[in-house]
Amino acid sequence: MELVKPDIGLLFWMTTCFIILLFLMKKYAWGPILAALHERERGIQEALDGAEGAKKEIAEAASKVEQMLSEGKAEKEALMKLAKEELMEYKNGEQQKINTQIALQMQTVKEEIEQQKRAAVSELKNKVAELSIEIAEKIIKKELRDQSAHNELIKNNVEDLELN
71 to each of 35, 77, 118, how far by Cα in Å? Predict the structure, then answer.
């Protein structure tokens, strides 16, 4: 039981050793330990600050990417609209050219048809005149079989010519 009841000398030396130990620890160990802890705390704070800065940079980069994507979409839409407008203009121009060519061809065809119609009418008139003359010749030959009727017809026609 003596260990449970320390005596005054033991208490004195334990207290003295404890104070010396505290003094040595403060002088040689706590300073470096606290310095190391402060250095670690500062490193962690710098890492947190760096992470925060990186987070901001990533947010800015994401914002820039989003902006670039939206600008790209707008530019694409503008180009598509311009291409559609140019295509419509080209189609309209080509349609007008085709309509003009069709109108010219129709005019040419109408003129050709008219010319062929005039030629056919002229040929028909000539044929009708030839047939009329042939029919008239046959009728006159048939009616003028005798010489006296023939002479009388000539006389009448000559008299008609002299009167005119």
Answer: 53, 10, 69
